[in-house]
Amino acid sequence: MKKCIRITPVLLSLLLSACALTPQQQAARQAQQLKAHQALSVALAKQCDVETAELMAQLYDPPVTQTEKEKAAFTKRYQKKANDPLFQSCYKLAWDNYKHQAELEEMQRYYDFERTRFRPWHYCYACW
Question: What is the pTM of this model?
Fold first, then answer.
């Protein structure tokens, strides 16, 4: 019995260390999340203005052979397009719409799937 008590913390620590992410895996996961966020930003910007979305995509993934003069011209063009009040309001509405849609989908998943594990029936709102 004493051996089990002594071995349990060792086995538990080995199990937890085996399940932990390595720094390379964490960096890869963060890079993947960043790419997904940037792709979402570009997709939402495309709903408002295609040219600004293309500039945003180029900002996230710049060309390798870009000179300083081209970079300055690009930055000026991007700032002009991105600071347009009409684009900013449309982009903000697109982000708000995306967030609210995600909240609605989460609530729908909660009421449709997660509650059925504990109660196989749904609450009858029309019964009252």
Answer: 0.70
User: Distance (Å, rounded) from C-alpha 127 to C-alpha 120?
Assistant: 17
In Å, how far are 2, 18, 76, 127 from 13, measured between CA atoms? 18, 8, 54, 53
The confidence score (pLDDT) of residue 45 equals 95
The answer to whether 90 touches 68, Cβ cutoff 8 Å, is no
Would you list the domain boundaries of the chain?
30-79
Instruction: Tell me the per-residue pLDDT of 42-74, one tens digit each, with 9 for 90 and over.
Output: 999 999 999 999 999 999 998 888 899 999 999
Alpha-carbon torsion angle 9, 10, 11, 17, nearest 10: 100
Give the whole-angstrom CA distance, residue 93 versus residue 44: 9
